[in-house]
Amino acid sequence: MGEVYRARDPGLNRDVAIKVLSELASSEPDSVRRFQQEARAAAALNHPNILTVYQMGIYEGVPYLVSELLEGQTLQESLRIGPLNLRKAIGYGMQIANGLSAAHEKGIVHRDLKPGNLFVTKEGQVKILDFGLAKLRQPEAAASNLTPTITMAGMVWGTPGYMSPEQVRGQATDHRSDIFAFGAILYQMVSGRRAFEKTTTADTMSAVLNEEPPSISQLAPDTPVALQRIVNRCLEKKPEHRFQSTPDLAFALGTLSDSTISLPTASYEKKPEVPRGLRPATFAAALVAVLIVAILGYLSVRTPQWPKVSSYVQLTHDGQQKSLIGTDGSRLYLGLGIGSSGSFTAHGIAEMPVSGGELRRISITPSPDMVPIALSAAGTELLVVDGRGSPPRGPLWSLPLVGGSPRRLGDTIGQTGAWSPDGKILAYANLSDLFLASADGTESRKLVSMRGNVEHIVWSPNGGHLQFDTTESTGGLGQQLVWEVSALGTGLHRLFEGLHDPPEECCGRWSADGEHFIFQSSGQIWALPQKSSFLHSQSKPIQMTFSPLSLSSPLPSRDGKKIFVIGQMYRGELMRYDSKSGQFSPFLGGISAEYLDFSKDGHWVAYVSYPEGSLWRSTVDGNERLQLTYPPLHAMLPRWSPDGKKVIFFEFGSSSRKPARMYAVSSDEGSPRQLLPEDTRHQLDPNWSPDGSKVVYGGQSNDPTSTIRILDLANRQVSELPGSQGLYSPRWSPDGRFIAAFSADSTRLMLFEYANRKWTELALGSFSWLNWSRDGQHVYVLDSRGRDAVLRIRIKDYQSEQVADLKNFLTVGRLGGSLALAPDDSPLLLHDTGSRDVYALDLEAH
Questions:
Q1: Is residue 112 among the annotated active site residues?
Q2: Which one is catalytic: 9, 15, 30, 112?
Q3: Which of 261, 288, 319 is the C-terminal boundary of a domain?
Q4: Which of 176, 246, 366, 429 has the fewest beta carbons closer than 10 A?
Q5: Same domain, 435 and 522
């Protein structure tokens, strides 16, 4: 039907592939429509396991599409040699499932999944190709400007042997048809044979409808039973008996850890020969010595007993934002999000049985600002913060779950805390200072001070040590570091150093038996054994899960048989708020993007894709899209230059040793360059001066040393704005008269007036995401003080008004959410359309 050419894109200095429909096929309307559908479907998907399409067009009557150039071979070519090893088959399977998940989330069903449409690059990355037979659900199709399926009911489309039974019958299909095809492919990768292989097409179709494939155990005896069950469930004849979603399928594959798929190896031991003439007593003594040496040797090299995940159960199905606070053995206590306007912060409390079921909200908080942070060891009291700012910080309270009245815990002020296992001591943190006090908050004393904010405090099982997280310590912004210190304030040291760079470890808890420290890192669950032997002075953590979901909030059960986690799929829908109707509606087709900024002429828009983090620009109607940055760089808060030729943005430090940096990139080519490569301080929130000659930027929140700085682009000189110490997130007004910024704790909105060189307090609240109106008369912010709302504050008289109520609007984004303004000053927010549910991971007994 066509040809594929290797080509060179001189503008972006990269090789690409150009697929051209043949002259004969170009004359057939159905072929042209399928070709166009392939391009549109693939272009609507932005995922590393799906072929990236850059452009589609028609040249001299011949349709063509431009895509990324892949080097490698199809999976079909790989399977001609024979079956894949188990690790590779499972790895490929997870990549395919992740790519399908992205398509299914957009309402796109592939319908022709087969080894020939799966490409394996030289680096081992799997790419899904050819969406020409894709079926598109109508609501998503309309939102994405995609055409619905071009096939007709009763017609059979696909490839025999990989088509689901409903496809063979010409019946209606959905995403579960792709899951059937996936099962057939996984079967073939593991066994080396097609699941349904007959001499004729008719016989193959009949086998799909009426026969079961040969058992994998007959063809590949070493295949784990769990993997066989996954394949069998995918190949169920009835769609309702298969996995009901690709995320569930991928999660099941992810539970197959290395230990699960390792093959047993036989060991042979030669019997020792006893020297002639050796006396029995001498022999017995020698044997005892040998045994002692053998036992010591065994103890010195044996692998610690690791908890192993064997299966999982999804306990909630509401998808709403939540976090796990604690368990008393029979119930789980959770924090619920209510319109999060920053990093996820729970403002509601709920409980549910450990076996699953409906969440029941608990209305016991005296203040709407109270945030749950911990459960007492006895499971009878919740520790909460009556907090404001970012992070929410304020007085600590105890809330009895059964009887009694809430009580303030002394004069304690902080953002996190935890009671000791015996319930006698309270550990809490006020920003970077860690304190110990009596359980009622009295007799407080400082234990240790850190460079970054202290989060998620947990006590060791014997109460002798504390483990806690910090968000910044070694120069990089947003780094997740884990520390340990004794209850006496001695022996402070970092845990897991070198495990990941940048470090992402956090939120650890001890197992019920106190033998393992369970924590999260890079979206998965890990375990570290307690140092219990003089022969094992330092053990290394091991990864317990390999899930396509991002897993967080690990909470071991009281009986030691499960770990409860939050499993999240990240996705969003860009929405615009209409103040006249009071309603939200999709913007730019509801793409998953944040940090929008519009050129001065209103023709162009820059945005960052979520969750990938790539910077794009397009016209305001979504055309002429161009990707300006590529992973691993994650762009933040792009801003157009006044002349529309450049976009500036910043990136968090790429490792624990690098601070946040500012970049500039041409709006016509993707070659970003650092603005101040030699400056070792944080460079956040860059904004242009109205004439484009300067850039204002700042440091990080909650940093009292942060200042507002101005870079003169002509002479490369940097100056500090007077009186700006402790301020961050600067924004230049459109007329150049003012610079607005937040106080370090995000509770004050400040305004610097160039005429008198003074700062003035505009408003008090719990603020984030500062924006100027187009006319420079107002400032827009998100406020989470007792509410979640968009506020507009007038400059001339400091009067504020609520523009949009976000209590029932859950935001999402790299930092939990963001606010941008359309050219008409309408608020733009990324609505959370992902899922965040509780899962129970079953542990195998040692």
A1: yes
A2: 112
A3: 261
A4: 366
A5: yes
